[in-house]
Amino acid sequence: MAAITFLRTPEARFANLPDYPFAPHYLELMGGRMHYVDEGQGEVVLCLHGEPSWSYLYRKFIPILSPMARVVCPDLFGFGRSDKPAKVEDYSYAFHFQALQAFLSALDLRNITLVCQDWGGLLGLGLLGADPDRFSRVVIMNTFLPIGNRPMPAAFLAWKTFALYSPIFNIGTVIGKGTARPLGPGVEAAYDAPFPDKSFKAGARAFPALVPTKATDPGVPEMKKAREVLSAWTKPALVLFSDKDPIMRGGEKWFNHNIPSRANQPVITIENAGHFLQEDAGEEIARHIATFLQNSRHA
């Protein structure tokens, strides 16, 4: 396999982003530099973003959760302040999965509360399936575990085609179209910040096509293992899906029905929130997670 060429977004692009005062941290992994936010102390809350967002998506969670935990939010390669493989073909499920495994190992993260959404779920729940002893709780938001056994929603297929082929591909605009509430001042620009020009957007274009749609696709073994582990999961689990996500709508049913520790637990719906529910209702969701942490500590 040829060596990957990484691009690095200039640090100046991330100056003075609204509501994002967090100091950057970096690890050298897989031939590139991965960025992460690391705020607070104590047991780890690992927040994994999806496509085409970055750790900025969790900025509303951090002030609420960091007084009670160590909140760690990495940027996947290709996104945020992390380095960006330059070619669409550089991106694969295995590459990102192995990068996150290396990240957990390098920081020796254990007793993790996993918080995941979108691709953060496909990767993060895959990590949980591969090494469940490393995780103590899970918070699942607007994601799924596809194994190629059913057609994908039309909204997803349209997004996949748009991401790969649209000549105009403004990331901030994409985020705005995936929310139910208007973005605040400067927020769209913050989502554009990691991408100085189109050469930096290979990951954002590649990711939708990496979602498994056939049973033989890469990632399906990890999805199946995650389903198997979650189907026997008796540790605390919280499922928070929004009411206005055309892609993930209904996905909460599998998690609520199949995770044993979800039995007899109330179903919580985040109202008036779109696909990027952290953007629409970040403080509300963080309060749910804080209560979840407190209650499960004393259970």
Mean pLDDT: 96
How many domains? 1
Sheet of most strands:
8 strands, mixed
Order of strands in the sheet with most strands: 2-3-5-4-7-8-9-10
CATH architecture: 3-Layer(aba) Sandwich
> What is the H level of CATH, i.e. the homologous superfamily?
Alpha/Beta hydrolase fold, catalytic domain
Helix content: 25-40%
Q: Give the termini distance in whole angstroms.
A: 49 Å
Q: How many individual helices? A: 10
CATH topology: Rossmann fold
Low-confidence stretches: none
**Helix-and-strand structural type:** alpha/beta
Radius of gyration: 18 Å
Strand element count: 10
Task: Report the principal-axis shape.
Answer: globular
In short:
By secondary structure, this protein is α/β, with parallel strands linked by helices. The chain is built from 10 helices and 10 strands.
Word description of this protein:
The chain is α/β, with parallel strands linked by helices and 299 residues long. It has one domain (6-297): Rossmann fold (3-Layer(aba) Sandwich), CATH 3.40.50.1820. α2 crosses α3 (119-130). 35% of the residues lie in helices and 16% in strands. The model has no long low-confidence stretch (mean pLDDT 96). β9 (237-242), α9 (252-258) and β10 (268-270) form a beta-alpha-beta unit.
Please describe the structure with a list of short key phrases separated by commas or semicolons.
single chain, 299 residues, alpha/beta, Rossmann fold, eight-stranded mixed β-sheet, two-stranded antiparallel ribbon, 10 helices, 10 strands, 35% helix, 16% strand, globular
List the SSEs and their pairings.
Blueprint: E1 6-7, E2 25-29, E3 32-39, E4 44-48, H1 62-65, E5 70-74, E6 84-85, H2 93-107, E7 112-117, H3 119-130, E8 135-141, H4 154-165, H5 171-177, H6 187-192, H7 202-210, H8 220-230, E9 237-242, H9 252-258, E10 268-270, H10 277-297
Parallel strand pairs: 4-5, 4-7, 7-8, 8-9, 9-10
Antiparallel strand pairs: 1-6, 2-3, 3-5
